[in-house]
Amino acid sequence: MINANPSNYQAMLSQLHPGDTLAYVYNNTIYTSQQGIFLGSPAQTTDAVTGNLVFAGTPISGSIKHESDNMTDTVQNASTYVNAPSFELGVMNLYPLPGKVEGSPLNLAPFSQNVDYTLDFNGVPKDQSSGQRVFRGAYAGDGTNPGWKLQAGIKP
């Protein structure tokens, strides 16, 4: 039986296959009543779960060797961090509230081989507003989202 309620899905499940050597999960904002980030098996070479903002029943779990600088809380507390947490598109606004999702500077050097590894969901450099990569989650700012609003459709 497939559960059709999106609030009951795992947000990010990684099950590595033979030959998979890396598992990198960074700069994501996740909102689910179930598991947020779950690595089902260890990476052969290395992994990293870094700089994520996760609101979930079980925020981060599994076979993770290198977890750092994430911010986690329950779904019920998400409204103290982001503008309008919701499972409904058009209502959902996961852009951070002022001063709520900042921490020590993030080390994104392990991801430097990835395209746009320093950009947020809006294409803004993660260090643009503060001079350092301090924002947890998908965005590099707080207050009012200056970019694309979450909605059904293809992001331009």
Can you describe what's shown?
The termini are far apart. The strands form 4 sheets. Strands 1-4-7 form a 3-stranded parallel β-sheet, with no helix packed on it. It has a domain at 7-14 and 23-105. It has no helices and 11 strands. It is mainly β and 156 residues long.
Descriptive tags:
156 residues, three-stranded parallel beta sheet, globular, mainly beta
What does this entry show, briefly?
Helices cover 0% and strands 26% of the residues.
Shape: globular
Radius of gyration: 15 Å
- The sequence of SSEs as H and E is EEEEEEEEEEE
Major β-sheet profile: 3 strands, parallel
The percentage of residues in β strands lies in 25-35%
Distance between the termini: 35 Å
Helix-strand makeup class: mainly beta
Counting DSSP H or I runs of 4 or more residues, the number of helices is 0
* Mean pLDDT figure: 87
Helix content bin:
under 10%
The unreliable regions are none
| Number of DSSP E strands | 11
Spatial strand order of the main sheet: 1-4-7
